[in-house]
Amino acid sequence: MRQSVRTQKWSNDQPPRRILIMRLQAIGDVIITFPFVQLLRNQYPAAQIDFLTRDSQVSLVKNLTAVDNVIVFTDSHKRGWQLLRTVAILPGLLLKRYDVVLDLQANTYSTIIRRLLAPSAFTEFEKFTPFTAAERNFTAIQRSGLLTYFEHPILPLKRKDLGLQKLKEKGWDGQKKLIVLNPAGAFPSRHWPLEKYASFAKIWLTKYPNSQFLLLGVQKIAEKAAFLEKELGMNLINLVGKTTLLEAFVILSKATLVVSEDSGLMHMAWAQKIPTIALIGSTDKNRSSQGGTHIVSLTSDDLACGNCMKPDCQFGPIPLCLSRYSAEMIVEIGETLLANP
């Protein structure tokens, strides 16, 4: 499938005064835009930078110091509600007279908004290319003329303490190195065996006793969390189902290392430049893996059946994608990441 990408480059000698960024969904894809939002703030400190996104992501975006205003789009996926919300927010957007619109969603509604705002410069996210989401975000913004290079920034947050009291109440003393374990892949073909998570943690703890393991995420991984809690005892803090999305994001900023299956939390870690081992599994490498010196992505790209996107492995109940990686191998990868910040 091909996409006709529309772009109009910023050609004014003066920097833009008002920039609108649009990324409506999904949570992980919205989070992947955050480093680019921060780079725009660094490049244009006097500009007003606004962000349009779905209601479920608003709290995350509002906590970025780089963003001035967040415009709320509906969480509904029904066309009628989305069209109604588009009509409702347009008058306010028109009054702001944006100089540049960065459409990092490129769907029907973001296209309508961009066309009606008629900015001096604009760009669109290219959906159908063999590159990661981060690379496509940068390429889109680069075409607008606003950025010429990408160096992953640190993300300053407005509220840095959210959720930390919950972490301390569960036994974190503020000194131990937090190692996040995240067995939250959506399908079996994206899972690393739970027994290997436990083995990894025990090996790591033997080598680095000033460590403490942490589980975050939604209730659907509660059974996995209970297994790991039984295996690791007091060395594990279980906050599964006990934090908001924003609290999890802030807590994650305190992590030393993240070992995560393909999920929103993995993208949270990448965006905040936390050393991350991304267990991608059967997901297409260009869909979920990201680049950078702070992340190692273990994909299935080297397998003949790789990038299959199937929820279950066609060759048996234990997918080769990730089960081939031993706990010792993940320890070694983690050590390499931390040795080369």
Automatic annotation (TrEMBL):
GO molecular function, one term: ADP-heptose-lipopolysaccharide heptosyltransferase activity
GO CC terms: cytosol
Keyword terms, alphabetized: Glycosyltransferase, Transferase
One of the protein's GO biological processes: lipopolysaccharide core region biosynthetic process
One protein family per Pfam: Glyco_transf_9
InterPro entries noted in UniProt: Glyco_trans_9, LPS_LOS_Heptosyltrfase
PANTHER family: TETRAACYLDISACCHARIDE 4'-KINASE-RELATED (PTHR30160)
Protein's name in the database: Glycosyltransferase family 9 protein
Organism: Spirosoma arboris
Lineage: Bacteria, Pseudomonadati, Bacteroidota, Cytophagia, Cytophagales
